[in-house]
Design brief:
Blueprint: H1 12-25, H2 30-46, H3 51-67, H4 71-84, H5 96-105, H6 109-121
Helix pairs in contact: 1-2, 2-3, 3-4, 4-5, 5-6
Length: about 140
């Protein structure tokens, strides 16, 4: 699992935390996946990261929660990450459709509407965001 932002220059500390979380994430049981989530959350709270790294980390946590079908928590962390990175011009990623669907699965149509609109506005710098018109 990669973090969602393509960070231009992530710190070594951030890369190490993502690698450690990825190694924990590969385990199959829900309990062990939750352990990976808790590890990553604690590292984001304990360490000093740049805003882009924090945003990426929260989105990564959202994907971890999505994998274990905890859509409410996934929606919370997706929103937290994208809110932090609101001013970042990140490239289109095909996983954004899953993010939007997660908002709906979490019964958060408000977040779905808000982020779908935000993502579509980003087509001014990356036309691929228009793929979300049908999302």
């Amino acid at each position: 699992m990669k973090s969602n932002y393509n960070l231009k220059d992530p710190s070594k500390k951030y890369i190490d935390v993502v690698k450690q979380a990825n190694s924990l994430y590969g385990l199959f049981s829900r309990k062990k996946k939750l352990r990976a989530v808790e590890f990553f959350k604690s590292k984001l709270n304990d360490e000093d990261f740049e805003v882009e790294e924090l945003a990426s980390g929260f989105i990564f946590i959202g994907y971890l929660y999505q994998e274990i079908k905890d859509y409410e928590s996934a929606a919370f962390y997706f929103n937290k990450g994208y809110s932090l990175g609101k001013d970042v011009q990140f490239p289109y990623n095909s996983r954004l459709k899953k993010v939007l669907k997660t908002f709906l699965k979490a019964s958060r149509k408000d977040l779905y509407d808000y982020w779908r609109s935000d993502f579509l506005k980003r087509s001014h710098y990356d036309k691929k965001f228009n793929k979300l018109m049908d999302a």
